[in-house]
Amino acid sequence: MNFSSLEIFCAVATEQSVTRAARHLARVQSNVTMRVQQLEEELQVQLFSRSGKRMSLTPSGRTMLGYAQRLLYLAEEARLAMNPEQQPGRLSIGAMESTAAARLPALLSKYHSRWPQVELEISIGTSRSLVDGVERGDFDCVFVADSSFLGTRDPRPKFAARGLRATRAYREDLLLVLPPNHPTVTRPADLRIKTLAAFSDGCAYRNVLEQWLGITSLETGSDWKVTELVSYHAILASVAAGSCFALCPRSILDLQRVPMDICAQKFATIDTYLVAQSNYESSAYKELLQFLQTAMYSEPGGINN
């Protein structure tokens, strides 16, 4: 067992695919397959259950993942201890408001406990502005959602075409939030109000609703109107007042003091990705990825929960 095999194992566990893991690691697919098989033979357990091209961790695989990640943590910690000039210094992170409010506090608290010397700089924005920003080099990495095809197609090739690398981070249940006593909605025609409360243009969740409503933008002359607000608190207050409907992650509703008579129904599931430039490497960023991959298997909202 060596660190290279453990890195490959963790990548396959995260990507749930040998093909995607090979692409992420810049290795040939046959090499990734062989290393996983060698690790299983060495441990004398099956680490993955295979269904077509999908690779899912077995119970033994989940146990092994925890050990593998800790071993990789210790290896990186030892390397940095021997090379203090390479100690991570600063990490600039962009995030959607929902991710910053509901997901990052726990993740960054653990990160700071392990790497207190890293200066974290957090900025809030829409998914579009954040992706543009990381492409320009304004951020080291960003947490964004991709609303293309309502989450039914892997967006990572689209990011790769822009010279960006995307890692799945969180899975969000999006709720259609309606005024008190509003009937159940199954299609746009069921909506009794025509005004959407949302963040500014470029918000991925707003784009989800625009796709569902069958429009490319809420332009002048459309039957649908938008009230642009700057916080979920303001959005939910507008919905409670009866003037708007909105789309909101369940994780945000769990944090807010939402009026009991507001109506909320499951609408869609969208993945959040951590995106960085394809050639970006730093110790601080690698550590964030490691913590994130641990959270993917151990925390509510993690991609494999």
UniProtKB/TrEMBL annotation:
InterPro entries reported in the protein's UniProt record: LysR_HTH_N (IPR000847), LysR_subst-bd (IPR005119), WH-like_DNA-bd_sf (IPR036388), WH_DNA-bd_sf (IPR036390)
Keyword Transcription listed: yes
GO MF annotation terms: DNA-binding transcription factor activity; transcription cis-regulatory region binding
Keywords: DNA-binding, Transcription, Transcription regulation
Matches recorded under SUPFAM superfamilies: Periplasmic binding protein-like II, Winged helix' DNA-binding domain
Domain of life, source organism: Bacteria
Domain HTH lysR-type: start-end pairs: 1-58
Cross-referenced PROSITE patterns: HTH_LYSR (PS50931)
Protein family membership: Belongs to the LysR transcriptional regulatory family.
Record PANTHER family: HTH-TYPE TRANSCRIPTIONAL REGULATOR, HTH-TYPE TRANSCRIPTIONAL REGULATOR GLTR
Official protein name in the record: LysR family transcriptional regulator
Species per Swiss-Prot/TrEMBL record: Paraburkholderia madseniana
